[in-house]
């Protein structure tokens, strides 16, 4: 019996440590905190063509908002100093399902350099059924220069773009 007490104690310690390491509830709490913090720490850009509806069959696309954000993913070790968040609204006006996501969008600087997309858990993507809408975010890292243009490219290579004015 005395030999069983340490074994039971070790088993309980293992179970409690695994429970503490699962972090499922912690991830949800962190995500809700980061969402609240991001809304407080955003610098708006002058809008330019933001808000302008663009059409590339079978999609209607609108950039709703372009901002710098302090919201970061919590996995990456190296945190980037500047991250741009773009809110996008998409509607499928065609007759078939269409796949779309943040990977279809590119952000450019004034010299035509493409900024890297930023791996964030709130990047959007989905398959849109006909007449359905999707609203979501695309994130990009900005190391130097000024973002001046957002471009969407479909699978056929057709593009539409929006000009972004100077950072305020």
List keywords for this structure.
single chain, Immunoglobulin-like, 2 helices, alpha+beta, five-stranded antiparallel sheet, 168 residues, four-stranded antiparallel sheet, 38% strand
Average per-residue pLDDT, rounded, comes to: 76
Number of domains: 2
Annotation, overall tally of beta strands: 11
Strand content: 35-45%
Largest sheet: 5 strands, antiparallel
CATH architecture of the largest domain: Sandwich
Derived structural class: alpha+beta
Unreliable segments (pLDDT under 50, ≥5 consecutive)? Answer: 16-46
Shape: globular
The CATH topology of the largest domain is what? Immunoglobulin-like
Count of separate DSSP helical elements? 2
Q: Level of helix content?
A: 10-25%
């Amino acid at each position: 019996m005395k030999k069983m007490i340490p074994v039971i104690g070790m088993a309980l310690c293992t179970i409690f440590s695994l429970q503490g390491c699962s972090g499922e509830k912690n991830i949800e709490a962190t995500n809700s905190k980061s969402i609240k913090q991001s809304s407080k720490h955003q610098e708006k850009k002058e809008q330019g063509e933001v808000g302008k509806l663009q059409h590339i069959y079978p999609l209607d696309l609108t950039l709703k908002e372009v901002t710098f954000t302090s919201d970061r993913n919590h996995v990456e070790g190296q945190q980037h100093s500047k991250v741009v968040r773009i809110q996008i609204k998409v509607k499928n006006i065609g007759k078939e399902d269409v796949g779309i996501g943040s990977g279809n969008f590119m952000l450019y600087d004034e010299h035509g350099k493409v900024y890297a997309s930023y791996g964030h858990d709130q990047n959007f993507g989905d398959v849109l059924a006909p007449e359905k809408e999707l609203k979501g975010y695309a994130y990009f890292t900005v190391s130097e220069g000024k973002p001046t243009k957002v471009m969407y490219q479909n699978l056929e290579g057709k593009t539409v773009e929006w000009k972004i004015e100077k950072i305020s």
